[in-house]
Write a structure and sequence with these properties.
- With 498 residues, the protein is α/β, with parallel strands linked by helices.
- Helix content is 40%, strand content 9%.
- The protein has two domains: 174 residues, no CATH class; 302 residues, no CATH class.
- The protein contains 20 helices and 13 strands.
- Strands 1, 3, 4, 5, 6 and 7 form a six-stranded mixed β-sheet that branches. The protein has a five-stranded parallel β-sheet with strand order 10-9-8-11-12.
- The radius of gyration is 24 Å and the shape is globular.
- 40% of the residues are buried.
- InterPro entries: FucosylTrfase_pln, GDP-Fuc_O-FucTrfase, GT106_glycosyltransferase.
- Belongs to the glycosyltransferase GT106 family.
- Its main location: membrane.
């Protein structure tokens, strides 16, 4: 994330102060150190061989379980009122917003959809601190996804400007006199108006005097307002998301073909049909994550060699094989859950083969072969491709940010959200659903790692351990600790006691 600032009055910018702010916010603003590379093609076809189940005894027991009426299960019971409400009042009253800003603030954001989302919130906060007019942020082209989607392709700009009009001045583009200030201009050299780092050897007092004042509660509230109220996806993403949610709630008959006309389906038929509940599963099992974890996922020598080559090619030796054994990594909860393992977790929690499951994910490492056991456990598993026609998906095809935006939208409209492994989508949706008091199951990675290492565990023992280990991991509100992000833990900064 980079800030560029143009002053109306050509006064010297207090670069040290702003740089100090940036440095202090760096842990929040910094995108994930390693960007997902899930579209990277496999180095050899051999690593895509059919993967045998690693927990065959548990899988057989789970598959033998009889279908039950999931609607009656406590799993589907919404979260009880936890005594907190969204609290997003304007930081300023309309009359308190200064009439004249000190200049324009340009922001260039890299990373994926959710990293950029957090950067947008912080950019609004910085503009507020500086009394600057924020130019709609520029989204960098991700070098891996090659997604050139602009801010206006993803978010409803007019809503953003309107919701925040009493807090921060926002414009869609710079005035003509600043037309020279482009991404290319700043890429060619270090410019005086580019703010990047704090002064070398800055004292503790410097930070206390220049940075601490800007981190007060009103700025946190503004971030909350941007994230939970002002940032809304553009209409065509919401329309496609609504269509997918509709089809999950009211599955079409076997003879009904998906087409663009389905977006305009009437509600007459739905009035006679009881809406079904569904789970959104964010299956974050891509090649990037598998390689970075240094865990063994049962693909044999070919897979190990492919992941080692990937680590060297992508990170150039910056990520080495772990010093820990696979058993140690798993017992510490540091191995991503495979599709088979997340399927066993869901089955142990009480979901059965009548559960409607929406798979929110980019390409899974190992392809359909890796997902086969999950699909065997949950035959009613759907995704964007199965629920929307090619015509409906045309505007998001090949656009990683737009694809992720649709998944985010569907995730926010599901009865339950489950993320297979921690990550940016996990953090964003956990926070957003906490804000709305919606059920979200967070896997206990350390517990599951230890359970899956026990090859003699029975299905009954596994189910009991899973149930006990996830009693307080279904969306119960937790207050943010000092170093935690408000985007994941919105209380108490973004919420008030009822």
């Amino acid at each position: 994330m980079r800030f560029h600032y143009q002053s109306h009055y050509h006064q010297p910018l207090k670069g040290e102060a702003i740089a100090g702010l940036f440095l202090l916010l760096f842990p929040v603003l910094l995108p994930c150190l390693f960007t997902p590379f899930t579209y990277a093609s496999p180095s050899t076809f051999s690593e895509w061989n059919v993967i045998k189940p690693r927990h065959l005894s548990l899988l057989r027991s789970a598959l033998e379980g009889k279908s039950s009426n999931g609607e009656q299960s406590d799993l589907w019971t919404p979260l009880a009122d936890q005594g907190w409400r969204p609290c997003l009042e304007s930081v300023n009253t309309p009359s308190a917003l200064p009439q004249n800003s000190e200049g324009y603030l340009q922001v260039f954001l890299d990373g994926g959809l959710n990293q950029q989302r957090m950067g947008i919130c912080d950019a609004v906060a910085v503009a507020k601190i500086l009394n600057a007019t924020l130019v709609i942020p520029y989204l960098e082209v991700n070098p891996v996804w090659q997604d050139s989607s602009s801010f206006m392709d993803i978010y409803d700009v007019d809503r953003l400007i309107n919701v925040l009009k009493d807090d921060v001045s926002i414009v869609k583009e710079l005035p003509d006199e600043f037309s020279w200030s482009t991404r290319e201009y700043y890429a060619t050299a270090i410019r005086a108006t580019r703010i990047k780092r704090a002064p070398v050897h800055a004292s503790a007092n410097w930070y206390l005097e220049n940075v601490l004042p800007v981190l007060q509660s009103e700025i946190q509230q503004l971030r909350c307002k941007v994230n939970f109220k002002a940032l809304v996806f553009v209409p065509h993403i919401r329309a496609l998301g609504d269509a997918i949610v509709h089809r999950l709630r009211y599955p079409p008959g076997e003879t009904e073909a998906l087409s663009s006309d389905y977006l305009r389906v009437t509600t007459d038929q739905n009035d006679k049909q009881r809406p079904q509940k569904f789970v959104v599963l964010h299956l974050r099992f891509d090649k990037d994550m598998a390689a970075h974890s240094a865990c063994d996922f049962g693909g044999g020598k070919a897979e190990k060699l492919a992941l080692a080559k990937y680590r060297q090619t992508i990170w150039g030796g910056r990520v080495l094989n772990s010093q820990f054994t696979d058993e140690e990594l798993r017992s510490q909860g540091r191995c991503p859950l495979t599709p088979e393992e997340i399927g066993l977790l869901l089955a142990a929690l009480g979901f059965d083969n009548s559960t409607r499951l929406y798979l929110a994910s980019h390409k899974v490492y190992g392809g359909e072969a890796r997902i086969s056991t999950l699909r065997e456990l949950f035959p009613l598993m759907e995704n964007k491709k199965s629920l929307a026609s090619s015509e409906e998906r045309a505007r998001i095809k090949g656009k990683a940010s737009l694809l992720a935006a649709v998944d985010y939208y569907v995730g926010m409209h599901s009865d339950i959200f489950v993320s297979a492994s921690p990550g940016n989508m996990h953090n964003a949706l956990v926070g957003h659903r906490t804000f709305e008091n919606m059920k979200t199951i967070r896997p206990n990675m350390a517990l599951l790692g230890q359970l899956f290492l026990n090859k003699n565990i029975t299905w009954l023992e596994f189910r009991q351990a899973v149930a006990e280990g996830h009693q307080n991991r279904q969306g119960q509100l937790k207050l943010r600790k000092p170093k935690q992000s408000i985007y994941t833990y919105p209380a108490p900064d973004c919420m008030c006691r009822a």
